[in-house]
Amino acid sequence: MFDRVAELTVRRPGIVLVVASVLVAAMSIVGVGAFGKLVGGGFDDPDSQSTRASRVIDEKFGGEANLVLLVSSRAQRVTDPEVEQDGTQLVAELRKETELSNVVSYFDTHSDSLLARDGLSAMVLAHVKGDESTREQHAQDIIDAYAGQYEGLTVRAGGGTAVGAELSEQVLQDLLLAEVIAVPVTLLLLLIVFGGVVAALLPLAIGTVAVAGTFAELALLGSVTDVSVFSINLTTALGLGLGIDYALLMISRFREQLALGTSVADAVRTTVHTAGRTVVFSAGTVAVALTALLVFPQYFLRSFAYAGVGVVVIAAVGTLFVMPALLMLLGHRINSGRLPWPKADRHRRRAPFWGRLAGTVMRRPVLISVPVLAVLLLAAAPLLGVTFGTPDERVLPEDAASRQVSTALQADFEGDDEAAVQVVVDGAVGDEALDAYAEKLSLLNGVVRVEAATGTYEQGSSGAPGPTSEALNRPDAQRVTVIGAAPPKSDSAQSLVRVVRDVDAPAGAKEVLVGGGDAELLDTKESIASRLPIAAGLVAVTTFILLFLFTGSIVQPIRALALNMISLAAAIGAMTWIFQDGHLSSVLGFTAQPMDTSMTVLLFCIAFGLSMDYEVFVTSRIKELHDAGESTEAAVVHGLGHTGRIVSAAACLLAVGFFAFATAKVSFMQMFGLGSGLAILIDAIAVRGVLLPAAMRLLGRTAWYAPGPLRKFHRRFGISESAPHAAAPTRESEFATRTS
Questions:
Q1: Most buried among 96, 204, 316, 644, by the most CB within 10 A?
Q2: Residue 319 confidence (pLDDT)
């Protein structure tokens, strides 16, 4: 395959670039439609009990409340006749909206639960119709029409759909700001790394191909399945980053060949066979890590697999075809546009730094590696107290309107109706049985009241007809609403869900489904936790197999997995210390809360994949030199001398794109950006620079061990990085000798 690709790009570079340009133009046209097809949400398991309960409520009871309008008057209590008249008019207008159902308010029920303790504000609850792709837009339309000043009232919007709509809008704004910061900084760093304008622009070409192609992929997938809008973040950051990584590897190898006096055509051939092979294999390891996200049922996580695998594959294909064609046409002009400060021999003087560092580490592996390992384990220590949650209004800044409403509901009202536990009883249950069931629920610790078709129940009182009784009863199902005193998403609120689920079903019931916001949180955590071992096992096994095929050793994959887990634990532990424990909250402007379950899983997979990316970069050169006859120690020193600068530069460039998300106002985007960037730098510097050479020195000859049958298997089916001609390894060996 690599022979054919090399010959195609050497003999027909113009045709390759014309075809690539046409494809990029077509993908860009299709990709523009992605923004209109991607949706918010996707954090819930579609087969969980809470999701099934929500579907039944939508189908049979008009939907549960997901929009809250908090109504107040500047000068009067809402119980005053003038305010009540305006409130009644507002409710009448809302009931005319075709996107709303189950509109319930204080103004027509006079329920104390919908009136603030101080009487200065009241709630209007409603269900916004639609699926994930339309609900937030419908909610935004309602908010635009009614929020602000309405007659003599002040109306503010909150609830799940309002939070979702505001979150989606804020994410797009954060993404734009991050790109505005990251792109020029990345371009400046590219100029510094390559020392020339022409070479610095080539990685942007690969990044453009990757991003355009992935947007087209997401647009097509968004037409047939739900794809999260948050996948855009990964597409842009990873597309640009991998484009830079792969192009940097190819350009560096091409320059090395030219420096050896090789012709341009032969330099391109060697680059395709060596760096091109590494790019393809590296892309495979990253794609495998991201494919593990497909085992989770939440389309929020699955969307990142769609985007991540797509951008990795397209970046690799673009690098394998477009980059050699560009290098063939440019030839020695790759060094055109030199900046004034680089000198011709600067690369040779700088590259051995990583080799000298590796040599120092290998002379004293324990003395040098133990302090580094201790620091990483200290950074990982906060994981001992980690807790997990799902996104809510607290991920938004404190001045966000929907968050302010949620805060007011928790502080000023007796129980939050919008955050209630929703119980659906399937079957024709008699009034007596339902009455006994509702009364039993009302006696549970932490319950403020229970609303059922037979009445409203509070601890210490008998049932009385409820204001919403007609919305709670159907011939084949009944709905019971349990309002608790605990704050939403708290441990107490989740415990209440468990207790409600443990209560015996009423006589005659076929099934009892318990839903609501806290039930969704509980189900999401259990859903992810149950599939996490499968995802981790898939990543570990496939990575082990790929690295074995590449190195021919069973020790190298184990060493790589162990070091990667240490660096990942350190990065995620640091994020726990910041975002859960609240350190740096005043600087970054977020509210401390449990670690986002889905985003932590995503961070792990992304960081793991990129760590393996750099693992392959370094190990491929070490293996190449070792196969050429060098000892393990010499291969590590010379291999890091060649690749250390590439890996460190690529890591810094990729980290910039992720660190730019620290400017976001959505806290889980800050966590993802900072965590990914930190994991990349830890791996490229601490692991590749110190722990890898120390481990190789301590392992010695066993670093390349494999049982006899596996050695035979590898000789037949294994993958290796080698030049197409026998002379190439000798040139590489000469180059290693001169630069070291």
A1: 644
A2: 94
